[in-house]
Design brief:
heterodimer; A: 334 residues; mainly alpha; two-stranded antiparallel ribbon; 15 helices; 74% helix; 1% strand; globular; B: 247 residues; alpha/beta; Rossmann fold; 2 domains; six-stranded mixed beta sheet; 10 helices; 10 strands; 38% helix
Chain lengths: 334, 247
């Protein structure tokens, strides 16, 4: 009961924020009924997916302050679990998704236990390494289709809610929108909760946290597992939505960096930060992708833009856009 | 049975013996001071007791339990709270949330943790600052917040590290009153590590003096200041021979 109450308790935000959030929420609910192109719909689905990735990343990377650049490996585990189980054993999405999440969380404990002995940059580098190693394994493992990846065949009539196979994109849209709202309310609970407070204390000072009875190592592992569950669930969805997965797409370094970048741009350690970040970067990415696709000479420009953003955040406002908003508000109040 | 019982404790960092053969006891309800010149090994001793270092030799007993080599968070859960000499609050936790982190050690309920934290802030005259960020507060208020956070863990023994550093005389008096209140009203056993003699002398029932990693004296404050070995530790051998003559 108390958990539910705190999940829906947004009272610490100013009224104006809640109005904006309510308007955005209403827009998201009615968006498919508004006139839109297929490209816009695809971009919106991407935006929702990356918002949920970012929310997951935010638990450990934002509230916990542990910059994680290896989230793609868990997207991959989720996506591959669903794809393999669908192709080989006809297991529906709603069964394979929790299994994928469980496998990813299990793997995250094995990775997290040794990795959280490292701090700061060393931790970030190690997460990149483990993610790339797992990608290499999948690229040479024939059971999961090796480098060619997997293609999920059409299973009978559409719309098929068991296997998440639809002709119209709005079905996918509403499913990922449900994930989005569940994620948002979960995170709202999380930031008020014991583990949320403890992580923010760890981010401040690990020594102080330990002196207040917090087993910092274990708290970080738990938050890492939470983040993993989020991204693995969306990974499973990604496999159904795309029908086609390859190691490079679902486990690549690009994806890991994008997840972290969106959360950091919007504001690491804030509730709405990852959503703001995704709302800016996903359309930019789609647009750049479409535009650069026609101009072979400009390949790599998107990476230049991303790295510029990273440098700008690091130099000017480590708390991202949300930090900027907070700062402006404080300046106006004083 | 003593609340804290340190037996033959030694701590070596490479070739440096920071602590050697230190034994003492703290009874429940005492207010003990730990003093010594710079680099005497006070902080190391403190950190060993609080579980931040694992001592090289010797044993520590807390509430009758052998806690040698316990981690800091395990010590905290057993009822030993500590504050830090330098508290750097850079994060986004406000005063109330800070104290709640302490309260969350004994409960997982948000409502209970908040109620408890608010009660403590009320008692320590911090209620008006509840929504401020700790980093924005003056030093004296920061120290009170740190103490409030430590108290939120319901400790039996509170270790205060250099709690008077950076305070002016008025703030120092407030701090002394606060420590007395914690000791008298909350029935918490207190141990203070301090450079500032004034605070230790006013507060403590008993003083331990550490010099060059060893415990050189132990006794009542008024008695301790007259001991030649203590004066020597602080003011040097020449001062003892010239000013006091051989005793």
């Amino acid at each position: 009961m108390e958990v539910l109450k705190s999940a829906f308790d947004f009272s610490d935000f100013p009224k104006i924020d809640l109005c904006v959030a309510g308007a955005v929420g209403a827009f998201l609910l009615v968006f498919p009924a508004l006139p839109h192109s297929g490209f816009t719909m695809a971009t919106m689905i991407q935006f929702l997916m990356f918002s949920v990735y970012g929310m997951g990343w935010n638990t450990i990377g934002g509230y916990g302050g542990q910059v994680d650049l290896g989230k793609a490996q868990y997207v991959g585990i989720g996506a591959y679990t669903t794809a393999v189980m669908m192709i080989r054993w006809d297991v529906p999405f709603w069964v394979s998704m929790p299994i994928g999440m469980a496998l990813a969380v299990g793997w995250s404990f094995m990775i997290g236990y040794p990795l959280f002995r490292l701090r700061g940059h060393y931790f970030a580098i190690a997460t990149i390494a483990t993610s790339l190693i797992l990608k290499d394994v999948f690229e040479s493992w024939s059971f999961v289709g090796a480098a060619r990846g997997l293609k999920i065949p059409i299973k009978g009539e559409m719309p098929n809610f068991l296997f998440l196979q639809f002709r119209q994109d709005y079905y996918y849209y509403y499913i990922i929108l449900a994930f989005f709202f569940i994620g948002l309310f979960y995170l709202n609970w999380f930031r008020h909760s014991r583990i949320g407070h403890q992580l923010r204390c760890i981010k401040d000072s690990e020594d102080v946290a330990q002196s207040l009875g917090i087993d910092a190592h274990w708290a970080k592992i738990k938050a890492y597992a939470t983040a993993t569950a989020f991204v693995a669930a969306v990974g499973s969805f990604h496999a159904c939505y795309n029908f086609n997965i390859e190691p490079e797409d679902v486990m690549g370094l690009d994806l890991s960096v994008l997840i972290a970048l969106m959360a950091m741009l919007g504001g690491a350690g804030s509730l709405f930060g990852p959503i703001i970040g995704a709302a800016i970067l996903v359309p930019m990415k789609s647009f750049l992708g479409a535009w650069l696709g026609a101009r072979a000479g400009l390949i790599g420009l998107d990476l230049i833009i991303y790295s510029t953003i990273i440098m700008a955040i690091a130099a000017f406002e480590p708390r991202g856009i949300w930090g900027l908003i907070t700062r402006l508000r404080q300046a106006r109040r004083n | 049975m003593a609340l804290l019982d340190v037996k033959g404790l030694g701590m070596r960092f490479g070739g440096l013996e920071a602590n050697w053969d230190i034994s003492f006891q703290v009874e429940a309800g005492e207010l003990v001071g730990l003093i010594g010149p710079n680099g005497a090994g006070k902080s190391t001793l403190f950190n060993c007791i609080a579980g931040m270092h694992s001592p090289t030799v010797g044993n520590i007993f807390f509430r009758g339990q052998n806690v040698t080599g316990y981690r800091a968070y395990e010590m905290a859960r057993l009822g030993l709270a500590r504050t830090f000499q330098v508290y750097v609050a850079t994060g986004d936790l406000n005063v109330l949330e800070n104290v709640m982190v302490g309260a969350f050690m004994r409960t997982s309920s948000l409502v209970k943790a908040r109620t408890k934290a608010e009660g403590i802030l009320e008692n320590m005259n911090l209620a008006s600052l509840a929504q401020e960020r700790v980093a924005n507060l003056p030093v004296a208020a920061q120290k009170r917040v740190v103490m409030a956070t430590a108290l939120a863990t319901d400790p039996e023994l509170l270790l205060l590290d250099e709690v008077a550093a950076g305070l002016n005389p008025t703030e120092m008096d407030d701090m002394i009153r606060m420590i007395r209140w914690v000791h008298g009203q909350l029935h918490v056993t207190v141990m203070v590590v301090e450079h500032v003699m004034e605070l230790v002398m006013k507060l403590s029932h008993r003083v331990l003096v550490v010099e060059s990693g060893r415990l050189i004296a132990e006794g009542e404050p008024s008695d301790i200041v007259r001991r030649p070995e203590v004066i020597k530790a602080y003011l040097g051998e020449r001062y003892v021979t010239e000013q006091l003559g051989e005793e």
